[in-house]
Description:
Blueprint: H1 3-24, E1 28-31, E2 38-44, E3 47-54, E4 57-63, E5 69-70, H2 73-83
Antiparallel strand pairs: 1-2, 2-3, 3-4, 4-5
Amino acid sequence: MSVDRTRQEALQRMLDFLDFLREKGIHFTIQQKGEGSLTVSFALIGARVEADFDVDGMHFSVFKGSEAVETDKRILDELIKEHWDD
């Protein structure tokens, strides 16, 4: 796969995630903390989340007493349901 195609897919992955947050009504910010990656930060009730996107994928940290880094998106989906959805 070409580098341009990989970058396009990485960008699309992030844009899809931002659309998901907008659909949920979750406010977010985007920062570039390191070269080659972007961080999406948002808060849920009882938790703060930082999701880092780069060409290799997405990983995130949840700050609610533990600062472990997660990579399974299902955990993030459940976290949003638990702390945001009615």
